[in-house]
Protein 1
Amino acid sequence: MRRLPLTLARWSIYALVLAVFVGPFWGLAMTAFSGPTVRPGTLLAWPREATLEHFRFAFTQAHVWRYLLNSCIVVAFGTLLQVMASALAAYALARKRFAGSALVSLAILSTMMLPEEVIAIPLYIVLGKLPPFNVSLLDSYLGMILPVVGWAFSIFVLTEFMRAIPVELEEAARIDGASELQIFFGIILPLVRPALATVTVFGFIMIWDQYLLPLIVTNREQLYTLPVVLSTLRSDETIRPNVFIAITLLAMLPSIVMYLSLQKAFNRGLMTGAVKG
Amino acid sequence: MRRFVPWLFLAPALSAFAWFKFVPMLKGLELSFYKVNFAREHEWVGLANFMRAAGDGALHAAALNTTLYVVVTVLASALIGFLLALVLEGPARHLAFIRTAMFLPAVTSAAILAEVWRILFFPTGDGVVNAMLGLAGVGAQGFLADPRQALGTLMLLHIWKAVPYDTVIFVAGLATIDRELYDAAAVDGAGRLAVLRYVTFPSMLPTIAIVLMLGLIRGFRVFAEVYATTGGGPAGATEMIMTHIYKIGFDQFDYGYASAVSFLLFILTVALTVLYLVWQRRLAR
């Protein structure tokens, strides 16, 4: 009987936590699926006259499919290239002994002190005239994709996992005459599949959430990604609050789905990220 | 031939780093000493850009805002995260569910959360938060539209996004504490608060240090949360170092000065990171 007040207190904290951190997402979803147009700033706690009309409007009238497509192109190619480049680099760092490997690790580590914000201005200038070709990557998908390919976090996570693979496996394959690439694709990659899932989910969320990079790379609205276009659509008077909320919901959905469907892989990375930055 | 194998594997990642990290870095350092002209050659100005930064009142105000913002948000999220971790720690399914669900703000893009915040804190009685305040008999607040409340409202946004992250890190830290310490404390007849004070807190110090330092390092370059919400306004009330740099660069096209200020921010980031690594090493010993 003495424990009852304590239990009650605990469950009220649970309720409060859910209300504060999940409540707004719930409200967005309920409003996006409700028929009657709400006043700006209003969220509904429960759907009224459930409808898909606002999503239909978003796609047909507000051309959201275009920004969705931009985001998808950038995130698909960005994640793929990032994971590939990281896995290749991690293989060299984890499985090879060579002069200069400590220096390479240090160089990669140092990029963690070079967040995109700090180099945004010169990056814009470099992208405008990429040496040594002197081509411009501004106003192009490549300009939004290539700068996210190198990511120290995923290299370090993969290096750590590749180090743990017993060297005998590799030796045996080498005696059988397997080439470097065969060892990399046939032995190493399949064995670090959990780590690949981790860096994929982190890479995906990191690239989907990019804001400053697409903002500086393009001034053409046709190339805007979803996070960047939101503020433009907000001031568009033909877009009703419910439609805007539906678009906001659409913009956050991919990261959330990735996170929820790859829970285990995500938590593995969170701990590494907390230590490594 | 075999000597080149590692370098072939490193080539894609290293060229990406070279092109989009190191070259911009050096370019930024170079531009810091120039006045960038468009039709004519750039003009060498020596340390003039850095001198200008020393006397730039708007930059100082932005640096002050940023410092206040970072210190308050990092401390508040760590404190709330720590307390929540104590409540939400454990293998029970309902706790795991709550920890997963509350993480939603942490995985959502800051620019998107900015729009959510603009809806929740809408400055009329229709806004969700204003409607709740209305129930308590408080009149509609301006929040992001009010120069006196905008910075605080943005801090709340940052805390909202950071608390779930800190909580999960602290929950993981709590799970690594040696159970025997708790048993020993129980044998000694220590109460709940004494256990927290003499067992939990000291064991958690390394984790607390990590959370605070990472928050600090990441906080000083805050951009999306602020730019997408208030753009630095109203009346400069929420101007941050990064939003200021962005405006110098992309509104005034003064790339030389913007690079110089970016470089100062970079020095700050490096100093904090080095401090963190030294601290981490000392704690590990």
Note: DSSP finds 13 helices and two strands in chain B.
Protein 2
Amino acid sequence: MKIVQINKENWTDGLKKLSEIYRLFGPVKEDDFHNFKELEQGQLPDLNCLNTRLSPKSIIYPQSEVMFEYTLDENQKDHHILKEVKKDYSPQAVIGIRPCDAKAFALVRLNFDTPEHQDPYWLKAYEATTLVGLACESPCSSCFCTTAGCGPYHEEELDLLLIDSGDQYWAKIITDKGKVFLKAAGWTQTVDEKTALKEIKAKKQAAEDKICSTVNTDKLREIETNELYNAPFWEEVSFSCINCGTCTYVCPTCWCFDIQDENLGSSGCRMRNWDSCMYPLFTAHGSGHNPRDTKLHRVRQRFMHKLKYYVDKYDTGIQCVGCGRCVRLCPVNIDIRRVCELMNSHAVMTD
Amino acid sequence: MGIEPDRLQFSWVSSAEATKFVQVATEVTLAIKDLGPNKNLVKTMPKVA
Amino acid sequence: MLSYIDKIKEISIRLLKECRVEMVIGFRKGTVPMMNEPHFAKSPEDVENFVWDSNCGINLCNYFTNRGEKIGILAKGCDSRNIVTHIIENKIKRDQLVIIGVPCKGMIDKRKISAMFEGEIGEVIENENNITVKGDGFEKNLNKKDVLQQNCAICIHRNPVIHDELVGELVEEQIDVDRYEDVREIEALPPQEKATYFEKLLEPCIRCYACRNACPLCYCPTCFTDESRPQWVGKGQDPTDVSTFHFLRAYHCAGRCTDCGACERSCPVGINMRVFTKKLEKDCLELFEWEAGLDPDVRPPLDTYRPGDPDEFIK
């Protein structure tokens, strides 16, 4: 495993070379906050942000995506046929993604890449993407990644991990994709591995020590589902929820979508859009019945899914990476850390 | 909302006022033709990914 | 304003003990700086969790819709006008509520304050007239008046217009306030520039509907955006659909919006969508001399036909 040194001074030259092969994405400041955007020629990613407001999941999984198109106009020779829309799956690279957001792709992949079904759009975009991570030196007070299965220097899903060390970045090569990326940029100067690794280990520890927010998830698997489902605290937890979709849309591990057709005269398309389990219509059946027609049902469903059902089904931990976005952005301050404690300690009570 | 004022017009016309109806329809059509096709808030195939 | 909390707790406990209400809706302390969470108390012990400070911006009127029990509710000036609107629209009966009126000097703008500092804010301590913002390597005192939410800075109804209890003395109403300066600026733009302005304003929108759901007026069982037969507005991110959603929502609030600011406050991407509702508020004032939610016995202008209604725009 090699560690390559990238001087911040000739960062731009490397990026220029990369932009000829990859479509580059990075955090860009817009108004008061940062978001991942496609970088224009010569535009630098702003790696000084704590984290972006919206997660980078939209790079692999866009919010609105046209899948098929069709025309009913019998004068066209391909009328009444659903045609796949051409998409751009050329190589792309996300520079400056935080380890929590990268790990989220691993969690989401369990849904989009199963033995029975593979989501072609998600998978193709995912395979075309190189993830160049940026280790966190100063995590936010609402980050709880260390107890959510990752951490500020976590390497899962990353092809490269950039560690800021003053006037240079150390790029830790994790996969072959990462190697290819570095070569394309012309960043080949390595550093002494032993010393570098030692220092990285110390920095990693320092960053992890800064995390002051934790959740306990040890009891979630063993408690009986119905005990949690019928727990008395849901009324108090769900009271303030306004059932907007903010938490689901900013969450890097949420994956639900809605497919619908849009028609315009005699042509149309089939598109998929992000959907949210917080919306009343999410579980509305064609018969008119809605199994989750109250706020309590929906709020309970969200937390049960993230902290119980996912744990039971996949046995890889909770469906949360501790990025803290839902905590910071919920308009009524519903806090998943608090709910996790309530659920985990409910287990203790009924033992 | 960014739509030109002459593009949207209101008028009271009774079914007994045929002449007025023709007049209003012609005037409004000419006014809109002068403005050209509307480019604002026009829904076409979704401009998304 | 900070001293209200004792009175709030006293009144809430009394109402619950006397069984005049089955629950009291207020706020409890949030888990991140400058946030409070709407909370209900069903017993005097629960009331201990209540807080009141300048972060109580969410409109509590959202929470009594479709509830059958008797409810005690904390209401600032803007919230009380929403209650009046709900009564006018038959959404709640007057005798179902015990309104605990809270004269308000304004809520602070969390987004504005966060933008003033480079690093993360760790704690915000509040005094009567100013706040101390502490963070990673910085500490600063700010005058509350300078960081009020936009709608609070130009508020002309700070006292509750309807109440059963009052938690403090009425505050002075602001007069000589120009509420529509920003609206007039936009009105003066030529159509194409207006269109561009709105396009840019709405570009970050992620259709999360936080604005719609935080708004106490948006209580339709099926919102027009969710209608599918026929589908009025697309659900995707097409800019025309996003604009249509915001414009139409504002129109549905015409003559009813009290400028409580809950929509702007709840938006996760910081869109100032109040420009739409304020424009319509201005129009209602100029065309019908109407201000929303002041009198529960007067029907609103979009509900009634008066012979003198303006019609110069009809040829």
Note: DSSP finds one helix and no strands in chain B.
Protein 3
Amino acid sequence: MTSTPAAPQGPLVGLFVTCLVDLFRPSVAFAAIKLIEAGGARVEVPRAQTCCGQPAYNSGDRQDAIAIARQVVETFERFDYVVAPSGSCAGMLRVHYPRLLAEDPNFAERAGALAAKSFELTSFLVGVLGLSKVDAAYEESVTYHDSCSSLRELHVREAPRRLLASVEGLSLVELGESEVCCGFGGAFSVKYPDISTAILDAKVRDIIGTGASTVLAGDLGCLMHIAGRLAREHAEIEVRHVAEVLAGMTENPAIAAPRQKR
Amino acid sequence: MGNGRQDFKTDAAHALADTALQKALQNVKRGFVDKRKAARAKLPEFDTLREDARAIKDHTLSHLDLYLETYERKVTESGGSVHYAPTAADARAIILKLCQEAGAKLVTKGKSMVSEEIGLNAHLQAAKIEVVETDLGEYIVQLRGERPSHIIAPVIHLNKETIEADFRRAHHRLPRERRLDQAQYLVAEARKVLREKFLAADVGITGANLLIAETGSSVIVTNEGNGDLTSTLPRMHIVIASIEKIVPTLEDAMIILRLLARSATGQEITTYTTFATGPRHDRDPDGPGAYHVVLLDNGRSEMLGNEFADMLRCIRCGACLNHCPVYGAIGGHAYGSVYPGPMGAVLTPQLQGIDRARDLPHASSFCGRCEAVCPMDIPLPDMMRTWRERDFARGNPPFSERLFLKMWAYAAKRPLLYHALANAIVLFMARRAGASGRLSRLPLATAWTGTRDLPAPQGRTFHSLYARARRKGRP
């Protein structure tokens, strides 16, 4: 755990990798680091992180959610900012930790302080670091899926679009129903797979209807859900995290796409 | 009043496979979501009204005893009577007694979800009183022996062909060759049939969208005018309403009404907004001879003091149902409750008990659109999560689910162990996927892979790659 030498004067960002990115798509975290550094901040990745605790929290296991929340507060409170390449995990830190730890005299205030400096990646790049363009090219027509937590918990809508507009060659086609859930919902997707898939199918039809060749989002949960169904249906649409495109790191195969070369 | 089954998953699966229902549910977007959006866009002060309405309700609920007293006094002064019903059974008994005292053979009803909640129709019918629903949608579900599938659009699950068949069956004395293939013919026929009932009814029962403390008035909003005929033509008008419908003043009522119609149907105001204050007075040209209000508690006063108090602000506009992806996928009947959708997922466990209704607050992706569109700013997902917490504390989730969660949490609280396990799992999955980039079947994950491929991990966890890159210099 060492700080990068990129911008020695910039604020120090603790990257909250998120469990899904750690497990399934490390390239998203590397892209996030590149983008944050391009914005003039330093990045550290504390190894004592695992997950934000949503699986426990949303299953009604409040005790474990609280224990994990305390651990995240302890691990990340020393940073100037905490950034996650996910609206869902950032929303957990920003909106839900203060509530979870409100009754804990040792943590209530600290949770509030952490919440105030925790951000979803694109909103941090635009809103805090003042980034208005990125150095990347992507010659594709793209549609963007707003994750529910980004959109409604964090009110992030413009930031990813603003940055995508600066990507050379990229054209954005909006979804017909950009406010509608993809049906993932964490454990919901496996507790009620039929309902989850029915909601997903409507989203997939919307995506296909745009004619875009790539679908992007800021949350890997939604992306894996969408990619999983597109792959099952043999639809030829690339699925990527928005950070990969913004960082110009699209050499890896898309989500659920076969490995070709290397 | 149940549909007999309480298996949410089975009912949801049937709903998903029902092509007629799926087609009907498509109407929700055009009929409600788009219209609400347009109505909201035309009212710049919508958010201010929302804050005001929330404040009105919060204030009223924290002084509910005082406002109920004022309301009762005003109703009594206007010549009416107020009856308190702690439970659904009490409400049924009070209403039956009132009907019997009035010598009622025929009762007409305006649309009332509270009457559905207490199972009123069956109770009156068992006492040999004919009950006729006069809201067109409610009339149709009554003919079909169903319950409404939506709190403001009872027959959103049906198409007009089905309704035509229902009318031909129910109105079998009318000429067989008559046309019923368009909505206007169905409406005209229902109007003709119902007109006779309105004129012959002994007692009219309506719900109330609002009760106004300062005037002792009950307010109903309708688009068919059936509520007016139900409340004014019979000898007796009975209002059945739950206690949280109270607002202090007429002005407060206006603020809520402005939000209600827009949130419900996208209308600026409903076709009819009717205020009833007491029985017919000497100078009134018409109206009922007697006016009774039955105030139902049925768990509400318990909610006042628990984590679900915010739910008592609900004005039953249905916006949360209309914007819910789960409701949109399965419709209302699968919820097995009078109240479906997000508001039902919060309210039903309070009414039926969490053990009987445990699926409802779990069957949500927590997308939060319900809360975003709620005109009363009710934190529906948070309250669903509170039910999940109660459910978990009672040990209700299946053993396998609790075991998995406990094992996961054990590791998540121990980063070193977690990273080691994560590495092993990622390696296993990546090997299994090979070059395909996906897993079409994975043991222990069949609930996912039944309908979706699982994208394969890239090969190593981020933390192991990052540590390796650190050792070699920059990542």
Note: Chain A touches chain B through 73 residues (CB under 8 Å).
Protein 4
Amino acid sequence: MAEHVDHSIDHSEHIGTSGFYWLIWAILIVATVLTAWISTIDLGVFNTVVALIIATCKASIVVLFFMHVKYTSEKMTKAVLLAAVFWLLLLLVLSLADYSTRYAG
Amino acid sequence: MSDRAGTGDSPLVLEHEDRPELRHHFADVVQQRNAASLGMWWFLGTEIMFFGGMFCGYLVYRRAYFPDFAAGSRSLNLIAGTLNTAVLICSSLTVALAVRASQLGKRKQLVNLLLATIFFGVCFLAIKGYEWRDEYIHHHVPTFYFDAHDLVRENPNLHLDPQHTKIFFSLYFALTGVHALHMIVGIGIFSVITFMAWRGKFNPEYHTPVEIAGLYWHFVDIVWIYLFPLLYLIDRRPGA
């Protein structure tokens, strides 16, 4: 880090254009209508898979662009986020591995 | 600083005296902002684990009692659920634009966008309350008066067990209830932020409260993004 930091100029912060935020909003709204519509089409087991993929895409868009993770200068933010998601997956995957192998069916 | 040197006071205390919003233990506003934002991310990490425990319970029971979960899910109001998802996405947009307005120092725009966010938050709770009222009328609230025989009759081929259907509704009310509690807290936080913005507390250099309150709001939106398919869209295939 530089010894002297100029307080008057701030290079670290990303300021998105309002048009860009409206575009993100439009994508999220379309994805919401899409997921509600797809749920009424018979895809077998893939109904749940598709619904969760769409939800994860929407969540990723919110995290990256609305929550500025794509632009942050603080590298620890990404580390905390990835650690939390990893821990969540650990909880879900290991629990389900346990319950799905305990009894038949 | 030189005239106070040697008096025993920490020299750090004397730093930034012309900048009340910059705490003495930070070198500059960028470091202070990054630290505050990182702290919020740590908190959101604990929130992921908090909701994660309930999601885990949901997944285990959904696997075990799928027909009951599917029937319970179909009894929920799909239009209201989709509308509420859209309302929350709109509120996330107004938050993102509010953070932008605070970065640019546009006070009036900031206050208006924060008020719009609170408005959308209240709309969400109103729609959610309407749904809960509907479920109360149908005796689907898991209390002593819980009754799922209407679902058992509507789905004769699924051989539902009202006790298992009750588990779906317990998880539904726990998850949506805790989410709504987060919304109420969020509306409270945004009321304070709006008041601060109206008083002109924020400027392009200092707007950390707007930013980290925004992170919290987006997180609550993300929880709903997952709750919507997991609760409302379990199995809505025709003929299912």
Note: Residues 195 and 209 of chain B are 12 Å apart (CA to CA).
